[in-house]
Design brief:
Layout: E1 3-5, H1 8-17, E2 22-24, E3 32-36, E4 39-43, E5 47-51, H2 56-62, E6 68-77, E7 82-92, E8 95-107, H3 109-126, E9 131-136, H4 139-145, H5 154-168, E10 172-177, H6 184-195
Helix pairs in contact: 3-5
Domain RNase H type-1: 65-195
InterPro entries: RNaseH-like_sf, RNaseH_domain, RNaseH_sf, RnhA-like_halobact
GO molecular function: nucleic acid binding; RNA-DNA hybrid ribonuclease activity
Amino acid sequence: MPTIESDPATARRRLEDAGVDVETGNTDHERWRAERGDAVAVAYDDKVVVQGARPTDLTALLSDAGGRAHVYFDGASRGNPGPGAVGWVIVSGDGIVDEGNDTIGRTTNNRAEYEALIQAVEAARDHGFDEIDVRGDSELIVRQVRGEWNTNDPDLRERRVRVRELLEAFDRWSLEHVPREINDRADELANEALDDV
């Protein structure tokens, strides 16, 4: 259960600026409480306590921003097109910061890879990182996003534009193709999500 030493008024403003609804506390000791995803933040006089299944759904908004992270992504489609899923991992000098996976319906492998990349970069943004080094095992996606290869598929072009918009918001970013064994955790997460379909 993370405790964030923060002025409750400042923390409340950060949450409200991010579109999180903040409500009155449930007891005389609670100044306010807020929910987002699978996390609940409760403010006391000099601290904010975050609890729930995924506290990172709120801690990223409450913590001081900055720093650098490595971001790994992988998308999968069984059948191509077929059931699709994504997996991603964010790692900093302190270890794994966050990871996630999700099913995304019927799709192609390339669309799943783009969706995984979008979700991973959005998560890194939500954690407040200034710099990210993104790694994936899809050479096609990496080269398209870097502008080395083109695509005739309008849907993939749209996704490429979205990824570039997200990346350009960081102070510095890189995007590299890596072998599957370097990307094994993101791959594992995507396949776990598919196994549950």
